[in-house]
Design goal:
By secondary structure, this protein is of the alpha+beta class. Helix content is about 30%, strand content about 25%. The chain has a domain at about 10-85 and about 100-145: Peptide deformylase (Peptide Deformylase), CATH 3.90.45. The protein has helices at about 25-40, 125-140, 150-165, and strands at about 45-50, 60, 70-80, 85-90, 100-105, 105-110, 120-125. It has a 5-stranded antiparallel beta sheet. A two-stranded antiparallel sheet has the order 4-5. The structure holds ligand K1U and zinc ion.
Length: about 170
């Protein structure tokens, strides 16, 4: 397994729209294992393939306290949405930045598992937030896109400063 580099906002590769996964082979299973290792090490509760510069519709998630409930979503589609909730979100591609985002409270998602078998889950609370955040990544969207232009500018400046300090 390997730790994968995570793209950081405003990297333009975060804007690439992911294509469906078509081949369920050993290379895909290696990519999934590497993404879980990267997500757990970060640490994070989700990771979309886009964030590691792999532009296929693949997401890994684990919102459990014990980190023992790994979930792989391939070619996911939200087929039902209900209600709304506002949650403070973070993003491994926008380090140190947290902001409130309004999302659906409950989503029903159809997807393929790592063997290519069709699955469906009914998610609410944090899992629903995380799924919507990761699906946005696959569509080339980052959570700071929901902020005002002024707040986005502040985020860019903060990240620029952080990068300059890291390079010094
Ligand atoms: O997609 C990502 O960048 C991962 C992101 C997912 C997410 C977090 C919060 C709300 C919506 C989506 C993260 O995992 S950021 C890190 C984080 O939230 C966290 C890390 C360790 C423990 C608990 C949370
Ligand atoms: Zn993110």
């Amino acid at each position: 397994m390997a730790l994968l580099p995570i793209l950081e906002y405003p990297d333009e590769r975060l804007r690439i729209v992911a294509r469906p996964v078509e081949i369920f082979d050993a290379a895909l299973h290696r990519q999934i294992a590497d993404m879980f290792e990267t997500m757990y090490a970060a640490p994070g509760i989700g990771l979309a393939a886009t964030q590691v510069d792999y532009h296929r519709q693949l997401i890994v998630i684990d919102v459990s306290e014990e980190k023992d409930r790994p979930l792989v979503l391939i070619n996911p589609n939200i087929v039902e949405k209900e209600g709304s909730q506002t949650c403070q979100e973070g993003c491994l591609s926008v380090p140190t930045v947290f902001a409130d985002v309004e999302r659906a409270e409950r989503v029903v998602v159809e997807f393929l598992d790592r063997e290519g078998k069709a699955q469906r889950i009914d998610a609410s609370g944090l899992l629903a937030v995380c799924i919507q955040h990761e699906l946005d990544h696959l569509a080339g969207k980052v959570f700071v896109d929901y902020l005002s232009p002024l707040k986005r500018q502040l985020v860019k400046r903060k990240l620029d400063k952080r990068r300059r300090q890291q390079a010094a």
